[in-house]
Amino acid sequence: MTPNFHQGIIAYPERAIAVVCVRDTTILALAEPRVIEFAPRRESGPLTFVDAPGLAAELAENRNSDCSPPPS
Questions:
Q1: Among 17, 48, 58, 69, which residue has the least CB neighbours within 10 Å?
Q2: What's the N-to-C CA distance of the chain in angstroms?
Q3: Do residues 14 and 20 lie in contact, with contact meaning Cβ atoms separated by under 8 Å?
Q4: If you ran DSSP here, which 8-state letter would residue 39 be given?
């Protein structure tokens, strides 16, 4: 089964945090990064959410930013 979310990983010197976005909505969450295995079978399970108030505040402040790719 294909996961129903995308993750962008932000690497800090002391740890990495995944910004998780559900495919069909604009809801974001912060979680431990997941390694998605493709072979021989995919493992799935619950996300482990993390508390990162500074990152959450930055994401909330910039939520209306235009994140569209630049024109080609």
A1: 69
A2: 34
A3: no
A4: S
Cis before 40? omega within 30? yes
The order of strands in the sheet holding 5-11 is 5-11, 16-22, 28-31
Per-residue pLDDT tens digits for 48-67: 999 999 999 888 887 665 55
Question: Do 19 and 28 touch, CB atoms closer than 8 A?
Answer: yes
Q: Distance between CA 44 and CA 26 in Å, rounded?
A: 22
Secondary structure class of 13 (helix, strand, coil): coil
How many angstroms separate the CA atoms of 48 and 1, rounded? 19
